[in-house]
Amino acid sequence: MQPSAHAQPPEDIGPGPVSAAASAEPEAAKPVNWRELPEPLRARLAELAAAALGKMPTADVPQQLRPVARFAPAKRAKLGGPALLAMLQESPRFRTAVLEWLREHRPDVLDPNAEDSVAAAAAAMLLGEADASTRVRLVAKNAEETTLRAERDAALARNQRLEAEIERLREQLADAQGAADRARGEREAELEKLRGRLREQGVLLRQAKDAAEQARQEAESGGNRRDAEVAALTAQLERERQRTATERARAERAVADAEIARQSAKEAREADEVRLALLVDTIEGATRGLRRELSLGDSGRSRPADSVRGASAVAGAGGRVQDPVALDRLLALPAVHLIVDGYNVTKTGYPELALADQRDRLIQQLGALASRTGAEVTVVFDGAGVLSVPVAAPRGVRVLFSDPGVLADDVIRSLVAAEPDGRPLVVATTDRAVAESTRRHGAHPVPSAVLLRRLGRV
Which residues are within 8 A (CB) of 111 and not within 5 positions of it... i.e. 6 or more apart? Predict the structure, then answer.
C-alpha cells in the first residue's frame, strides 16, 4: 500500500524530559501559582499530603481536613485532593507538619534532584526551594510535551487506519463497478428479450381488442333487450312483494288482536273468578261470624259424617300470593286489610338505610298505596330499641310498635286472629312461621319482595 500524499514522516516534537540543571535560567525565582499546577504535580502533592494526614495526631489535623482524614487511605487523595492542596497553600503549619512527617517516615520523596521531574518539583515545593517555580514550569512543559507526543502518536495511528480504510473502500468500489458492469450487460440482454415479447404481445393485444369490440357491440344490442325484460320482471315482482307484505301485515295484526282479546278475556275471567271466590268466602265468613255473635245454632240438619270421632274439621286457609298482579286483585276487594311485617320488608328492600329511615320510607310508600287502593293498612315494627316514633302516620296507615317483651310476629298473629271470619286479609312477610300461621287463619301471605315490587309502581 502506497503512503498517502498527505502523510508526513514523524517529527521529533521535542526532547524528552529535561533535567532541572539543564533548563534552569538565570532569572529571579518567581512564586509558585498553586492554582495552575500541572495535573501530575497536583496528584503527587495530594498523595503525599494524604499519606501524612492519615498518620498525624488529631490535634495537628486542620478543622477543614478532618472529614478528609476519615476517608479510606485508597480514596483520601482522590476525593480530598482539592482540600489538601488548598490547605498546603494556605496553612504553613499544615505544610510544616506534612514535611516533618515525610522527613521522618519517607525521606526518599524529599529529593529535589530526583530524576523524576514530578517528584523533584513536589519535593522542591514542600522544602520551599528557590527554584521550585522553575521545576514546576519544567513539569508543565514535560506534561505538555507528553500530551502533544501522545496526540501526535494517536493522529499518526488514526491516519494509518484511515489510509487502510480508503484502500479497502477502493477495492470494494472496483468490485462494485465490475459487478455493476456485468449486471448492466445482463439487464440489456434481458431488456432486448422483453422488447421482443412486448412486440408479440402487442400484436395479440390488438387482435383481442378487435374481438372484444365486436363482442361488446353484440352484447350491447342483446343487453338492451335483456334490461327491458329484467325491468319489467322487477316491477312485477315489486308489486307482488308489496301485495304480499300488506296481506302479511293484516294477518299479523289480526293474530295479535285475537291474542290480545283472548288474553284480556282470560285475565278478566280469572279476575272475576278470584273476586267471586273471595266474595263468597267473605259472605260465608261474615255469616258464620254473625251466627256466632248471635249464638245461633246451625240451621242445617246434623249429618252422620258430623258425628264421627277421631277427626276434626279444619277452617279454610288463605292462598299464597306470588306476583304483584295477584296482590292488586286482593287489594281491590272491599274491606281488605293489609298487615305488613315492617322490618322484614325494609331489610329486604333497602337494608343499607338506618332503621329510622327505613321506617319513614316504608310508611310513606304504604300511605300512597292506601290512598290509591282504599285498603286498610297496618304496619307492625319491633318496639325494642326504638328511641323515636313517627308523630303522625299518613291517612289510611296504622303504625304499631310491639310492647317490651312482645315480638312483632306475635302482634301480627293477634291482628289476624282478631279479624272476623271471611274478611279479606293480606300479610306481607317472608317469615315462614308467620306466613304459615296466618294462612291457617284465612289470611293470604305475600312475600316482602312482591310487596316491594308493587310499592315501586306507586
Answer: 119, 120, 123
Q: Which domain holds residue 420?
A: 317-455
Count of Cβ atoms closer than 10 Å to residue 438 Cβ:
27
How far is the C-alpha of 244 from the C-alpha of 179, rounded, in Å? 78
Exposure of 330 by Cβ count < 10 A (0-12 exposed, 13-18 middle, 19+ buried)?
buried
Q: What is the CATH number of the domain that holds 360?
A: 3.40.50
Beta carbons within 10 angstroms of residue 426's beta carbon: 23
17-26, 196-205, 243-252, 408-417: which is most confident: 408-417
Whether 207 is in a domain gets the answer: no
- Quote the Cα angle for 279-285-286, to 5°: 90
CA distances from 447 to 200, 271, 348, 422 (A): 93, 21, 10, 22
What is the pLDDT averaged over residues 314-326? 74
Which of 109-123, 189-203, 440-454 ranks highest by mean pLDDT?
A: 440-454
Residue 346 lies inside a defined structural domain of this protein: yes
297: number of CA atoms within 13 Å, CB side? 4
Average pLDDT for 444-458:
90
- For residue 132, what pLDDT band results from cuts at 50, 70 and 90? confident
Residue 457's pLDDT is: 74
Q: Per the domain annotation, does 384 fall within a domain?
A: yes
Domains of the chain: total: 2
Contacts 24+ apart (CB under 8 A), 278-281: 278/330, 278/333, 278/424, 279/333, 281/316, 281/422, 281/424, 281/442
Strand partners, 426: 338, 444
At 275-289, the pLDDT tens digits run 666 666 667 666 666
Model pTM greater than 0.90?
no
Q: What values do phi and psi take at 338, rounded to 5?
A: -100, 120
User: Cα separation of 255 and 261, whole Å?
Assistant: 10
261 vs 263: CA distance, rounded Å? 5
Domain final position from 101, 130, 159: 130
Among residues 108, 130, 152, the one where a domain terminates is: 130
Tell me if 402 is assigned to some domain. yes
